[in-house]
Design brief:
This protein has 315 residues and is of the alpha/beta class. Helices cover 39% and strands 18% of the residues. The strands form five sheets. Strands 2-3-6-7-10-11-12-13 form an eight-stranded parallel beta barrel, surrounded by eight helices. Strands 1-16 form a two-stranded parallel sheet. The chain has a two-stranded antiparallel sheet with strand order 4-5. Helix 10 links the parallel strand 12 and strand 13. Helix 2 runs parallel beside helix 11. The protein is globular, with a radius of gyration of 18 Å.
Length: 315
């Protein structure tokens, strides 16, 4: 497990494009399969051991679950890098659960995201800033999240668990609030989910827990109490301006870090991140200078998390 075998290393994940931000919000958001793959490879070269992937319609930038677009991205990255590829099963807003999950049986990835509960997931605060939208879908897509529930019922989660187990894919448990840690513990207790598990504490999303240090500590303490410190490993992803501070705090507590343009479009106040690699380099330096922990390599992470290896995927 990471806690013991990589205690002196930081596992950096780069979330390359996501389904939250829209093309109007940043000129550097990767959209086409070529752009997404290139960004992933460069992030790996900068020190990311894992890349987390969504895909977008190359003509409009709208999030999609198109299997052929995933195939293009996955095969290109694998051809050029040994980075661990983590596919989304969160998809985009409004996608049904089976559509979001289809990427797992199609490609049998080493690891995939697995959302740990239903929640309000609001992007509508982005509308407080006047914008001239580049594409007609963007403003309605953001506005609709004021009346949107991101559905992940216990029945959904059972199907996701069994599908990932059948395909040898390790679930990365996305926990947006304390209740999601309780959900994970219930699935473990019932035997639906197999341990040890790898958790991601997602902080600062409208509808989820905040991104203060107290919020992070509450998530960590709850996981320790319910699961026990030896039964799980963990990382932090935090929205917007909270990204770097929360990831650095996680590194000081023994956790790991996710950066990338899915979560945050900036390097600092008013300064766009021009690439995912810039953010990877920044957190890598911050962590090393503060804690002495160096960036883990992909094969070190495979060993620590018990992943099946890149030869066993279906792409």
């Amino acid at each position: 497990m990471i806690a013991s075998s990589l205690s002196d290393k930081i596992v950096i994940t780069a979330a390359i494009t996501g389904a939250v931000h829209t093309p109007t919000m940043s000129p550097y958001l990767p959209i086409t399969p070529e752009q997404i793959a290139d960004e992933a490879v460069k992030a790996a070269e900068a020190g990311a051991a894992i890349v987390h992937l969504h895909v977008r319609d190359p003509a409009t930038g709208k999030p999609t679950s198109n299997i052929e677009l995933f195939r293009q991205v996955l095969t290109e990255i694998k051809k050029r890098s040994d980075v661990v590829i983590n596919t989304t099963t969160g998809g985009g807003f409004g996608m049904p659960a089976q559509e979001r999950l289809a990427v797992v049986p199609a490609f049998r990835p080493e690891i995939a995201s697995f959302n740990m509960g239903s929640m309000n997931f609001g992007l509508y605060p982005y509308l407080s800033k006047p914008r001239t939208w580049k594409y007609s879908w963007e403003e309605p897509y953001i506005r609709a999240t004021k009346d949107y529930i991101f559905k992940n019922t216990f029945a959904d989660m059972e199907v996701f668990c069994s599908t990932m187990q059948e395909n040898g894919t390790k679930p990365e448990l996305e926990c947006y609030d304390v209740s999601h840690i309780y959900n994970a513990n219930r699935l473990l207790t019932e035997g639906t989910l197999k341990g040890p598990v790898h958790m991601q504490f997602v902080l600062g999303i409208t509808g989820g827990i905040g991104a203060s240090l107290e919020d992070l500590l509450m998530m960590k303490q709850t996981a320790d109490r319910l699961l026990g410190s030896g039964r799980y490993t963990w990382s932090v992803a935090a929205a917007g301006r909270n990204q770097f501070g929360s990831c650095l705090a996680a590194s000081r507590l023994g956790g790991h870090a996710r950066v990338g343009l899915e979560d945050n479009l900036y390097m600092g106040k008013g300064v766009y991140a021009r690439s995912n690699a810039e953010q990877v380099s920044k957190i890598r330096t911050m962590v090393q200078e503060t804690t002495g922990r160096e960036a883990a390599k992909p094969d070190e992470v495979r060993d620590a998390l018990g992943l099946k290896g890149r030869a066993a995927v279906n792409f």
